[in-house]
Amino acid sequence: MLLKGKETANQIKEEIAKEVEAIVNTGVRAPHLVAILVGEDGASKTYVKNKELACQKVGFSSTLIRLPEETTEEELLNKIEEINNDDSIDGMIVQLPLPKHISENKVTQAIHPAKDVDGFHDVSIGKLTKGQDTFISATPYGIIQLLDRYNIETKGKHCVVIGRSNIVGRPMSILMSRSGNPGNCTVTVCHRHTQNLEAFTKMADILIVAVGIPEFVTGDMVKEGATVIDVGITRVDADNSKGYVLKGDVHFDSAEKVAGYITPVPGGVGPMTIIGLMQNTLKSHQAKFNG
Ligand code: NAD
Which fold would CATH assign to domain 30-112? Predict the structure, then answer.
């Protein structure tokens, strides 16, 4: 069965839009998200545009700040500080990757934790690890909600996460092992040095793949009836008007035959990631206005 991220995301967007309408009707301003885009990376431009469109759809204010490739680290840090101090802004994201001369770590740590709606700040990650209330980074947050909306039982299950990045694999593994629902899994984290990967994937009741290698996981690596979450999005050259197609990390046609549930690419995790971001922005706004 398909886990239709796009459909679920649209449903949640409608719910958020109603909440925002109710907020605005009380005379309080709408939540406001600022995105900073440095340089001209094609995929980044698309991601930022999709985030802006989602803001419009739910009734948030959104501001896109576009800075040239040659922006210095200091200039970017100054801009972040300005936004940190601007009370009319609830959340801020700096689209990654950044040009090589700018430290991603310095930038993510410069964003005030109260506006860290991407959940990349050390404070957010530390709180997540301790099971405290915080901004959860958008992709893992979106996945959690997708599992929840489809009522997929996670308690006591074996979850295998392939990938240990700070934005996807690592926080995902923490969430799935936390005490809570979805959660309460026994979690195995696999990565580039894992030996005999297939032995682990075949044990997974829930398999979450965030590797960045197109069609890396094939159907013969999947346990019968497992839930397969494909995080990967890679642009692969193709002879079409765009010049590329998007491929996931899972070989869909073979995995779909074995899996109980599976996310498609596109239309699976991607739209749910934007939902994670919208909900974090709403949460930041609520913290400001509801105390
Ligand atoms: P990353 O490159 O930071 O991490 C990849 C991880 O895969 C690493 O931890 C590495 O150890 C592991 N890995 C690499 N080769 C491996 C191998 N042969 N066997 C086992 N593990 C291996 O990537 P990321 O930022 O976590 O992103 C992963 C993928 O997810 C990318 O395709 C990215 O575009 C996509 N992504 C999608 C969304 C979304 O919204 N759908 C969001 C973030 C990332």
Answer: Rossmann fold (3.40.50)
The alpha carbon of 133 and the centre of ligand 1 are apart by a number of angstroms equal to: 26
The Å distance, Cα 209 to ligand 1 centre, comes to: 8
Q: What is the pLDDT of residues 249-270, one digit of tens each?
A: 999 999 999 999 999 999 999 9
Task: Assign domain 138-270 to a CATH class.
Answer: alpha beta
Per-residue pLDDT averaged across 236-261, rounded? 96
Position 43 confidence tier, pLDDT thresholds 50, 70, 90: confident
Contact call for residues 22 and 281 (beta carbons, < 8 A): no
% residues pLDDT > 90 (the chain) = 98
Name, in order, each residue with C-beta under 8 angstroms of 61's C-beta and a sequence gap of 6 or more: 29, 30, 31, 32, 33, 55
CA atoms within 13 Å, Cβ hemisphere of 53: 8
Asked whether 212 lines ligand 1 (CB < 6 A), one says: yes
| Start-end of CATH 3.40.50.10860 domains in the chain | 30-112
Question: What are the b/e assignments for 129-164, b being 16+ CB within 10 Å?
Answer: eeeeebbbbbbbbbbbbbbebeebebeebbbbbbbb
Q: Which residue intervals of the chain bear CATH 3.40.50.720? A: 138-270
pTM of the model: 0.96
Q: Residue of the nearest CA to atom 16 in ligand 1?
A: 192
The distance from CA 30 to its chain's CA centroid, rounded to whole angstroms, is 23
